[in-house]
Specification:
alpha+beta, 54% helix, four-stranded mixed beta sheet
Length: 205
């Protein structure tokens, strides 16, 4: 059985939601991580070489980075229809969105939070306004990034806006998309699971 190493209220929460959406038989193991406020610590039970989450172990396969894990899981559980498989229509767009998030969206949003800018960033990644335009173009054609089909690409690309709503671009199609993603039952169950884990950790502190 695959094992996902997870910590509440982190990037790995989107993987918990994906596993729920897939109906996948994956063991979710909660571990501690070092957090931005100085709390927490690296968990010796976590095999991630940097002590981070998410980290997926499936036999001899060890995966890190959310885009890679999402692609691996949607390919492993194709019957759920959460990612076009090789040769299926939409596969190119699906791969592009997973890579766009990891390579462009998240770096741009982190740089904005950090208040950093540089001409090289603009030449390489463009800017948040350009990112907003790319999201809006896709979402104006259909309710999801792949059109009529909800996919793991939506889970990945929407994830920062759940934690940092002030970063949600001021565009109605994007606001509606964020709301639709957050209203999905699997997303609600993940938030409840994380809240319960956070409460237990607070009691033990």
């Amino acid at each position: 059985m695959p094992v996902l190493y997870h910590a509440y209220h982190t990037r790995s929460s989107s993987l918990v939601t994906l596993i729920d959406e897939l109906g996948a038989d994956v063991d979710i193991r909660d571990v501690s991580v070092r957090r931005g406020d100085g709390s927490g610590a690296v968990d010796p039970a976590n095999p991630h070489p940097e002590g981070k989450v998410p980290y997926l172990v499936d036999g001899d396969e060890h995966l890190r980075e959310r885009g890679a894990i999402m692609l691996y899981l949607t390919d492993r559980y194709p019957e759920a229809g959460l990612g076009p498989v090789h040769g299926a229509p939409g596969r190119g767009a699906y791969l592009s969105w997973l890579s766009y998030y990891q390579g462009v969206m998240e770096p741009l949003l982190l740089l904005r939070v950090a208040g950093l800018s540089h001409p090289v960033i603009g030449e390489t990644l463009r800017d948040v306004d350009t990112m907003t335009a790319r999201l809006a173009e896709a979402l104006e054609r259909g309710p999801w990034l792949l059109g009529e089909r909800f996919s793991a690409a939506d889970l990945l690309c929407v994830s920062p806006f759940g934690w940092l709503p002030d970063l949600i671009p001021d565009h109605p199609a994007i606001h509606d998309w964020v709301r639709r993603c957050e209203e999905r039952p699997a997303a609600q169950r993940t938030r409840a699971r994380d809240a319960a884990s956070a409460a237990r950790a607070a009691e033990m502190a």
